[in-house]
Amino acid sequence: MAPVAPDKVNSSVVFRLGVLGAMATDLFTARVNAHGLKPKHVGLMVALDAGRASSQLEIAGVMGVAPSLVVALADHLEKVGAIQRVRDPADRRRQVLTLTEHGRELLAACGELARSADAEFAADLTAVESAVLTALLDRLAARQGLPTAPADQP
């Protein structure tokens, strides 16, 4: 197999999204770190808030991570009062996670931090370009089975 020319790699959508994604992750991580969180903590709270999963095993599937990581993330979120664990009365082996009121407030604060990071990251885009980018990312996300942006969010 012949080596791929660097200009071909740099023009690849997956390569460019990967590099930009790493930069965006760093920006968001720096912001949520002020709340003692990492992006995966926020991802777990988003999954709970969206009602996509409630058990640790279901959340692992939704997030695409190992169940042991969900346990560690949930331990931290429970410690800071963002979630609570309850044994499922129908299956005592299963722990159901729910957001607490503090968790909803924390998630709302993370949403504001994400919007401010968006504004900084995409500062050179016009409102129309930003809307087009969001629509295109939604199409790519939907194809991968990921949730899309709410209709009222750019």
Task: Characterize the structure shown.
- This protein is mostly helical and 154 residues long.
- It has one domain (21-143): Winged helix-like DNA-binding domain superfamily/Winged helix DNA-binding domain (Arc Repressor Mutant, subunit A, Orthogonal Bundle).
- The chain is 62% helix and 10% strand.
- The chain is built from seven helices and two strands; from the N terminus they run H-H-H-H-H-E-E-H-H.
- The chain has helices spanning 6-10, 13-32, 39-49, 56-63, 67-79, 101-121, 127-143; strands spanning 83-88, 91-99.
- A two-stranded antiparallel sheet has the order 1-2.
- Helix 2 (13-32) crosses helix 6.
- The relative contact order is 0.10.
**Morphology:** globular
CATH hierarchy class name: Mainly Alpha
What class would the helix/strand composition place it in?
Answer: mainly alpha
- The CATH topology corresponds to Arc Repressor Mutant, subunit A
CATH architecture: Orthogonal Bundle
Taking the sheet with the most strands, its summary is: 2 strands, antiparallel
Radius of gyration over all CA atoms, rounded:
18 Å
Overall structural domain count = 1
Counting DSSP H or I runs of 4 or more residues, the number of helices is: 7
Instruction: Kindly state the percentage of residues in helix.
Output: 55-70%
Mean pLDDT level: 90
Order of helices and strands: HHHHHEEHH
Detail the poorly predicted runs: none
Order of neighbouring strands in the sheet with most strands: 1-2
List keywords for this structure.
about 150 residues; Arc Repressor Mutant, subunit A; two-stranded antiparallel sheet; 2 strands
